[in-house]
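Duplicate of #3305? Posting structure anyway:
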């Protein structure tokens, strides 16, 4: 659909975007899985995009339609979350060994990398044995039928405005909260909603390219900072509670100290960036997008 059609029929475009993400998921769920890490990553990425678009058009669909699809795609994402987490642990350990001065216990690091790699391989095998990808294919294609049958209540900017404003409002609220409370739960919710907003703006970028390109880039940078912070928090918990590692308590303590210092720097950067990019109040943010839309239209 070209830009003119997009602006004249945003409902058709956004329904098409939902269906496109389902098609991408399906393409990774059929045939032989050649690269498990890429498959898991791409499916989870499309699920997040799907849920972001769904939130954006929530004003144009029924509560039952929203709840049905949101719950389905949330649950599918959880099916793959542990595979993603173990991959994070493996990547974090390799990253630490390559860039930090652990020469004194290099052998222990190497052995730990092998042990996490073995766990990752085992979990990948479980996904195949349990036919997780076949289940995802079936359930998302059932959703495809339902999406095709949705009758949108409106087909103008109002279809998106409330959804955009709601997500932005939530993100902005957390941007202030994390200045004082940096609990793992707050930071996770903050990043999750930033990702929703970022994906929504990417969908709208054909219309708002001049307005949103730099803004979307800032959101991506903020999301990456919070994502790296969370990955290493999860890694430290994993390191602490898995006794099979070759590392001693003293060595783990050294790793924890280094990661904690790095995460503190990431958090300070994220807090500063947050105060710069969420200045506008939610109503003004949504109104400005609508004004720009109408001007382009």
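Output from current build:
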């Amino acid at each position: 659909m070209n830009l003119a059609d997009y602006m004249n029929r945003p409902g058709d475009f956004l329904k098409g975007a939902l269906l496109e993400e389902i098609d991408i998921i399906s393409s990774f769920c059929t045939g032989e899985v050649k690269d498990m890490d890429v498959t898991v990553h791409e499916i989870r990425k499309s699920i997040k995009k799907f849920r972001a678009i769904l939130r954006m058009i929530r004003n144009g669909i029924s509560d039952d339609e929203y709840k049905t699809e949101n719950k389905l795609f949330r649950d599918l994402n959880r099916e793959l979350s542990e595979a993603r987490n173990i991959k994070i642990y493996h990547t974090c350990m390799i990253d630490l060994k390559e860039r930090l001065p652990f020469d004194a216990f290099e052998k222990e690091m190497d052995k730990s990398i092998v042990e996490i790699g073995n766990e990752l391989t085992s979990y990948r095998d479980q996904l195949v044995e349990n036919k997780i990808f076949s289940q995802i294919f079936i359930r998302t294609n059932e959703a495809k039928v339902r999406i095709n049958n949705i009758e949108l209540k409106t087909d103008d900017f109002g279809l998106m405005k409330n959804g955009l404003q709601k997500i932005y409002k939530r993100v902005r609220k957390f941007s202030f909260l994390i200045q004082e409370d940096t609990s793992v739960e707050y930071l996770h919710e903050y990043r999750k909603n930033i990702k929703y907003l970022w994906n929504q703006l990417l969908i709208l970028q054909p219309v708002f390219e001049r307005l949103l390109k730099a803004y979307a880039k800032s959101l991506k940078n903020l999301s990456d900072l919070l994502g790296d912070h969370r990955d290493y928090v999860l890694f430290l918990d994993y390191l602490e509670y898995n006794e099979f590692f070759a590392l001693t308590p003293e060595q783990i303590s050294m790793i924890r100290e280094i990661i904690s210092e790095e995460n503190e720097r990431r958090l300070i950067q994220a807090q500063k960036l947050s105060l710069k990019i969420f200045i506008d109040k939610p109503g003004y943010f949504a109104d400005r997008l609508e004004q720009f839309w109408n001007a382009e239209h």
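Confirmed duplicate; merging threads. The CA atoms of residues 184 and 233 lie 8 Å apart. Residues 3-296 form a domain with the CHAD domain fold (CATH 1.40.20.10).
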